[in-house]
Structure formats: C-alpha cells, structure tokens
Design brief:
With about 250 residues, this protein is of the alpha+beta class. The chain folds into 2 domains: about 80 residues, Nucleic acid-binding proteins (OB fold (Dihydrolipoamide Acetyltransferase, E2P)); about 120 residues, de novo design (two linked rop proteins), CATH 1.20.1440. Helix content is about 45%, strand content about 20%. α3 runs antiparallel to α9 and α4 packs antiparallel against α5. The relative contact order is 0.12. The protein binds zinc ion. Zinc ion binds next to α6.
C-alpha cells in the first residue's frame, strides 16, 4: 500500500458507521478524493475532530485496492469561527458542494485548491455582513467557472464582439457571457442584465480575494449577480441541487 502526504481541505464527511466514516477532500497533490477514516468510535474521535468540513491541514493517506485511507492529519485550522455562524457555514457549504459536484476525482487543479482554501480561511477570519458574503460567493463562482473553462465573458458582446454600452444588456449561459441589446433579442436564453451588474462582474473578475470586500455596488446589482451565478451553477449541474437551500439561507 502506497502512503503519501498532501495539503488538503475537508469538503464533507459522512455519518460514522461501524467500518469508519468517509470524508471528501480537495487536496493539493491529488485533487478531489474520497478517503476512509478507519477505527473504533474511540480512536476515530481523535482523528475525526480534525476531519470536520472546511478544516485544512497536511493529510497522511494510504492508497490501496480498497481506495484511500486517512492515516493521520497535521491540522492547520479547525475553522471554528466559520462554523459558529449559520451564514458563513452556508457560504462555505455552497463552495464545498460546487467543488464536490462539478470537479472530477483525482484531477488536481492547484489554483482551485488555493481558491477553496483561501475562501474557507477568509470566512473563518472575518466577521462578514450579508452583503460581503454575497460578494464573496459571487466572486467564488466567477473564479470557479473560469478555472473550469466555462467562465463568463464581460468585456464585449460574446455574439457580435462589439463594445457593450449601457442600454438593453443581457447575459446568455449558452454563449458564455454578456450580450448587446441587438444580440440579446436574437438569443433564446438571454436574460436581462443591469449595467451596474455588468460593472460588478467586471470588477469581481479582476479582483483578488483580498480586494473583494472593497468592491462597491448597489443592493439590486448584488442580488442580480448572485441570482445569475446561482442560475449558472444550476445550468452546469443540469439538475436541482441542495445548494439552492444554502442560497436561500443566505438571502
Ligand atoms: Zn452583440
């Protein structure tokens, strides 16, 4: 059985059974993977405390015919501040669920690892108001889909390539970005987009995580932006998702 260590974050875990419990990790070296925590309830409890959702650390794993097993963890953070509030827990759950459902096993993307780790850390360190949480989630999804190769384009009309001017703007998921008024009328899945929401998307697309909370916008554009990324997520899932409940808990 091969053993190795890698940095990782816990995305979710299953309820414990007699044979242990399953955890889903996103790791720096191996991408998303499911690993078993073995042991009796007593020995498990020692390890399990560091294997709660959103924890990060250095994980020691064994890989054999039965899959991955967690041998140990050198925990960096239990993320206890994050988990004290329903809204930050909901935000972290949205991030974890998107990674679980829309990435493939064992295909590491180190940029995505850094994004997920930094979002959990951000949620753990800062006392965030609802508006800041919505900005953060919107930023995460723009970055996430961009890393997945299905990011939205906001710099020009995705259909005719003309400069976008305030007016009748819209957005299309099938074409992958913003549309001018004329092209919006010709596109079946075009949805109306406020000019200030377009501006917000452009700012968030450029902003590193540390600058996200400095982005100023109207409540209406923030609500629309979250609505767009939530529908984009559903579009990529192609089915209904439990994350919708978390979106509702945030709004
Ligand atoms: Zn156009």
């Amino acid at each position: 059985m091969a053993t190795f260590s890698t940095e990782g974050v816990v995305l979710s875990h299953s309820s414990p059974t007699d044979s242990g419990r399953l955890v889903t990790l996103y790791t720096w070296g191996h991408g998303k993977l499911q690993a078993r925590l073995r042991g009796s309830h007593k020995t498990l409890s020692k390890l399990a405390g560091n294997m709660e959702p959103f924890c990060d650390g250095l994980f020691f794993l064994a890989h054999g015919p039965g899959g991955y097993t967690v041998i140990g963890v050198d925990a960096a953070s239990p993320r206890s501040a994050l988990k004290r509030k329903l809204q930050t827990t909901a935000a972290a759950s949205i991030v974890a669920e998107a990674v679980i459902r829309l990435t493939h096993d064992q295909q590491p993307d180190r940029r995505l690892f850094a994004v997920v780790q930094s979002v959990f850390s951000f949620l753990d360190q800062k006392a965030l108001r609802t508006g800041s949480l919505l900005l953060l989630i919107t930023w995460f999804f723009l970055r996430f889909f961009s890393l997945q190769g299905s990011g939205l384009e906001f710099s020009q009309c995705v259909r005719c390539r003309k400069k976008l001017t305030p007016g009748t703007l819209s957005i299309s998921f099938s074409l992958g970005g913003a549309l001018c008024g004329e092209c919006g009328r010709l596109t079946s899945d075009a949805q109306a987009l406020r000019a200030d929401t377009l501006k917000l998307f452009r700012l968030l697309n450029e902003a590193p995580l540390a600058d996200v909370l400095r982005v100023k916008t109207s409540t209406a554009s923030l609500v629309q932006a979250l609505n767009v990324v939530s529908r984009l997520y559903r579009y990529h899932l192609e089915d209904s998702s439990p994350a919708q409940q978390f979106f509702q808990a945030l709004s």
